[in-house]
């Protein structure tokens, strides 16, 4: 029987991710597994066709975004996992979501990724979101896709 000991739960803070967090913590409680919750912030664009953001301002904005994201994920986990939330480690990284999820899974040596089938894009017409699809195809461990 598969008994996960290290679980990664990526979140984009959508209602779909809420389901994955609940499920991931339930599994962790059942098997006494360690939980890692990850949120990935995609980089702030510094310039576009008609404007440019100063380097210092860009760095300050990115710092505020990362702090705000960490606080939001902490609240999400506390709301959904209750007392079990204290057993989880929260991390916020910047980058391409599926790349960072796969990197985190490898670095943390997780044996299970619990991820929602769709994210914030809300493209319900598709069977599976692009991040989840990339994670499914690139993961070296088991992946539980939560609907």
Give a quick summary of the entry:
This protein has 147 residues and is of the alpha/beta class.
Structural account:
- This protein is an alpha/beta fold and 147 residues long.
- The chain has one domain: Rossmann fold, CATH 3.40.50.620.
- 44% of the residues lie in helices and 23% in strands.
- The protein is built from 4 helices and 7 strands; from the N terminus they run βαβββαβαβαβ.
- It has helices spanning 15-31, 55-81, 97-108, 130-138, and strands spanning 6-10, 34-41, 47-48, 51-52, 88-94, 112-116, 142-146.
- The protein has a 5-stranded parallel sheet with strand order 5-2-1-6-7, sandwiched between helices. The protein has a two-stranded antiparallel sheet with strand order 3-4.
- Strand 3 (47-48) and strand 4 (51-52) form a beta hairpin.
- It is globular.
- It starts with 5 loop residues before the first strand and ends with a strand.
- The mean pLDDT is 88.
Write out key terms for the chains shown.
globular; alpha/beta; about 150 residues; Rossmann fold
Describe the SSE topology:
Elements: E1 6-10, H1 15-31, E2 34-41, E3 47-48, E4 51-52, H2 55-81, E5 88-94, H3 97-108, E6 112-116, H4 130-138, E7 142-146
Parallel strand pairs: 1-2, 1-6, 2-5, 6-7
Antiparallel strand pairs: 3-4
Helix pairs in contact: 1-2, 3-4
The averaged pLDDT comes out at: 88
CATH T-level fold name: Rossmann fold
Order of helices and strands: EHEEEHEHEHE
Enumerate how many helices there are, as a single number: 4
- The name of the CATH superfamily reads HUPs
- Give the CATH level 1 class: Alpha Beta
N-to-C terminal Cα separation, in Å? 23 Å
Number of domains: 1
* Radius of gyration from CA coordinates: 16 Å
Which percent range describes the beta-strand content?
15-25%
* Overall strand count: 7
